[in-house]
Structure formats: C-alpha cells, structure tokens
Specification:
By secondary structure, this protein is an alpha/beta fold. It is 25% helix and 37% strand. The protein is built from 14 helices and 35 strands. The strands form 7 sheets. A 10-stranded mixed beta sheet has the order 17-16-18-19-24-23-22-20-21-25. Helix 2 runs antiparallel to helix 14. The radius of gyration is 39 Å and the shape is extended.
Amino acid sequence: MEIQFSTDYPLGYLVLCAAVAALFSFILYFRDKRFESVSDWMKRALYVLRFAAVFIILVLLLDPFVKSSVKKIESPFIIIAQDESESIINSDSSHFKTDYKVALQDAISQLSEDFEVATYGFGGEVKDGISYNFDLKETNISNLISELENKYENRNVGAVIIASDGLFNKGANPIYTPISIQAPIYSVLLGDTLVKKDLILDRVKYNRLAYLGNQFPLEVNMSSFKCEDEHFNLTVSKKGKVVYEEEIKVLPNKQLNKVTAILKADKEGIQHYVVNLSKLTDEVTYANNRQDIYIDVLDSKQQILILADAPHPDLAALKTSIETNENYEAKLVYMADFKGEIKDYSLVVFHQLPSRRYNTEVLSRKMKDENVPALYVLGGNTFIPTFNKVQTLIKINNAKSGNNNSQAILSGNFSLFKLSAETESHLGAFPPLMCRFGTYKTSAQGNILLKQIIGTVASDYPLVVYGDVNGLRTGIFTGEGLFRWRMSEFHEYGTQAGFDELINKSVQYLSVKVKRERLRVTSKTVYSENEIVTFKGEVYNDSYEPVYTQDVSIDVYDSEDKKFEYVFSPNQVNNEFKVGAFNQGEYRFVATTQMGNNTYTSKGQFSVSPVMIEHMRNVADVNLMHTLASENGGELFFENQLNDLVKAIKARDDITAFSTLEHSFERIINQKWIYFLVLVLVGLEWLIRKRSGAY
C-alpha cells in the first residue's frame, strides 16, 4: 500500500502555514514579558506545543487529503449459466435432475480449484445460482448475455459457459446480439438432437371478446414431425363437454394443418375452452397437444346511433366503418324519423346536426342526463349558433356561409388514444374536408388529433378534436366529406383500414363510459401463469374526488372458493397493487373499503392460462449453440463432455489473474483523531502554563 499526503493548494502554502505558526508562537513565548520568569527549556516546550497546534489548524484550512493506493489481484471468473426452462427436460426429466446435475456440480468443483466460479440459472429472467428445477416458462438467451455484460463490466472474466438446448422463445436471436464481454463463450448442448415423432398444436388464433348468442371462430394451426398419413382428432371442449370435433389427416412434407372451428357463445362471462389434439402412438411428448384459451362473452353489442339531418355519402362510410368492429352495431336514423329514445345507445353520432330545421338542444340535455356521449360531424347544414350552445369543446365565432377546403395534419401532442404508424402516414394524403368559415376556439378540455391546413397554411383550427367535460366525452369532426377519405385510402393504398381505425378508435374512446363508483378495482381479464396479477384501485369521496388514505381489502377466490386475502392503499403516485403469479384456473375477486359508516364493494373476475411455449419444440438447436460459441472464441461441447470442457478451459493461457491499482482519497478534516491531537496539544500547553504560574 502506498500513502501520499496531498492538497489542492501548492505545497508552498505549507511553508507559509509553518512560518505563520512559528511567528505566532515566537511572539507569544519569546516576546511576551509575562513569560520572562519561565525557564528557557519550558519556553521552548510551550513554543513547540503552540506551534504544532496552530500549524495543524492552518493546514486543515487547506483541506488536505490522503491518497492511498492498494494493489489488488483479481482471479479470473468462470461464469456458468444454466438454462432452467421446461424444454430442457422434455426429453428426459429424471436424467437432467440427477445424472446431469451431478456431472455439472463436479465440473463446477474442478473449475473452482483454479478460478472464481459464478453460477446463474436463466429462463425469461436471470437469477443467481442453479436450482435444477427446470420449471421456467420462457427462454431468453439475449437477455442473459445483456445481464452478464452489465454485471461483469470491467471485471476479469475468463470464460462464459452457457448450457442450453438453444431453443429461445423470447428476446432477440443471441447470434445477432452484440456481445461486449471480452471472454470466450463455451456452449454445452442439452436436449435431444434427433427429430422424433411429434404432433404439435402450434397456435390458436381467436378474439378474446365474443357476444352472447353469436358465433365466433377459432383458427387452429398444427404441425407435425414423422406423422405422415396418420389421422388424429381435433376437439374443443368446455367444462369436459366436447363442443367441436373434427378428424384430420396429417399433411405430407411438413405442411401445416389449419382448421377453423366455429363455436357459439352460449353463456355470459369468461369461458374456458380446451383445444386438444388426440395422442398418436410413440409421440415424443403430449404436452404440446393441448392449449387452454379464455374468451370473455359479453351480453350484447354496443349500440351506436347515427342521427342525420339529411342523406349524405358520409353516413354509409361511417356506418360501414363502425360495423367493421364486431363490438359495435350502428343504426342510421334521420332526424325527421327519430322518436327521442336515447338511453339504449352507447354513443350518438350527429351528422350536420343541429341544423336550421332540427334544434337538438332538448336532446342534448337528455343525453347529458343519461350520460350518453356525442360525436359531431359538421357540415353545410349545421346551424353554428345552436352547435355552440349544445357543447363546450369548441366555439366557432364569426361563422359565415361557405367552406374552407381543409386538409389534415397531426397536432403532435394528442394523448387520448394511439393510431398505428401506417394510419398516421395515410392521414396526410387524405383529400380535404369541407369546413365552415369562421374563427375556431378550442376549450381547455379539448385534445386535438388533427388540425386544419387551409390552402398551404397550417392553422391551429381543429379538424378532429375530443374531450371530456364533467365526465361526458365529446368528439367533433369539423368538416364533411369523410366518405372521400375512405375512398381515397382504398384508391391509394388498396385498403380502408386506416380510416376504419380512426373511426373505431374514436367510437371506442367516446363510448367507454366512466362509471362513477366510490370504489373501483379492476384487473386484466386473462393472465399467463408466469405473469404477475395486478389490480388497479381507486377510492372516491362524495364529490368524486380521489381519496388516498383508505385501505382496500381484496379477497381472491379460486374455482374451489379457496380465499387469498390482500390489503393495499392506493396513493397519488401509484394505484397499482401486484399480488404475484397464480396457478392456471379461473378466479373472482371482491374488493371492499370502509368510509364512515358505509362499506363500498367492487367485484370482478380473471383467468390464468398455462404457458406451453416451452413444449412447442423438442429438437435442440445445434447450429445456434455452435455458432454462439465459435463466433465468440469458444467451442461447442455436448452434455457428456463436461470433463473435456473443464480441461479446455484450464489449458488456455489467456485466462489469468490480473492486478489492479485501486486509489482512495480521504479528507484529513474528516478524521476524528486530528481533532483529538489538537485538543491534546492545547490541553498539554495549558497544563504546563498552569503549573508554571504563567496565568
């Protein structure tokens, strides 16, 4: 260890400190007449004590520090990362939990004789140590590499050993992941490399929502290995009862089988369906023959009312776009035929209403009472003075007859919902809408999605705007000619998906009614069994202002009514509460809170589906594991070659210890002993003067 005394000031300042201390002590003891009777040796002793105390104090004012340097020898790390996902034991569970475990532990012991060994288990995430449980639901090798790079940056890593079957199902391909660890990577190939007979249920495509009484499709994709010309049954069952069955012949040449099963939604709520392929003789595994899916069956579709002043091409475009979403059913009614019933609708679209012929003030008040949102499409027939009265989102002043041809431009700060990048790119190419002349003023509640480009000038006038005023949502298209947008998109891009997305996202935002409940606790409808179940909770007072001092109790019940109890307190920063992962199954929850003498309740349900992705492939990826090793200075070894792997690492000349010089800095003013030293010097001086009678 090397120790150096230093300061940020020039060393000449130390000479100055010594001179000042010497002068001060000399004046006190050799020029002060009070000490004439004191013997010379005592004067010199007192002089030295005073000089030392004053010198130390002056030096401390320079804020000196001590620099110490320590030489450290760091042995090389050998990192062993074991894939602990379920796919490892698909071929032979007992072997990997017994024989392989013993062999790997022996290899670790041999490496520990010469190196520092660090072990990790990984699946979707990385954890310290190896458990040998092989129960993780995902494999992410690129995440493993990133985690090791972060943990061992600037460390002496001798080698990295990755033991895996190379079957990743999450994250990037590790071969194309940049690796900055300056150490060879050795791979240990686990699992079976031979293609064996297997029938695989690859994926089931379905919508998570269906409506009671409607039919809905399941698209079942299947693949197979060494099963040519065999027959199997595809079944879909609910609560043990088969609701769909079909016999299928395996296609040759590894072609995928695809079947669409049509089911009927006959019960409301979350419905659990099991899609299953019958077992063929001698399949390597049956775990990938089944998938569980959960579908939320709603009681009815949302009803959207389109109220129009007069026939117009926009009306067909709006109705068609709304009904591309199976959640919505649109009804077109002309104002002359409307009977005034409004409560059964989730949203009312006003096309060129209010007009001079039809004043909608009474209807608008009724909608506010019933909490029914509105979407306005303005046009030449819209009577602007009444429009300014029935809504407060925008005001159009100085309105005149005639129109501006206004093209769309994204406002850039819209936050209520997200359109796809493709739709956003299409919007700029849409033809202009015909917007009324006037001065547009948007209220503070307005959130503009599209602004008007009038001629070649981008304005702040809204073309499409949404907002929430006192809990009631409103949307406004300030121009007519929407049908041209739909036609133009099909002409330019061969699709109408962008326009349909814009209309459906608008309807979705506006038609979602915010329930005014004193306690609101929600969760996702479906979780995976490796996913953390999370609740969101909000508590409101009588004025529907959020309250952050109330505890909320949540009781979760499984299908057998076993109860899991939790308590949390929503706060201003975070209203989420994570309760952990649950086993596969169906659950319901009851949340309660007590405010004063009243108890408020919120109920819901969710399902947990199994994760089967680790069982989809059973043949180890030799090429990936070989490439990962060879491109990073290592070699590929098989699981029965662990001793050879140990010898190869020990034989390398470039895996050696290296030394580092670590510097540390300590300010002397922070050392307590320096104050004690000054106190001793001053105290000793005082004591000598006291005994000599110099006071």
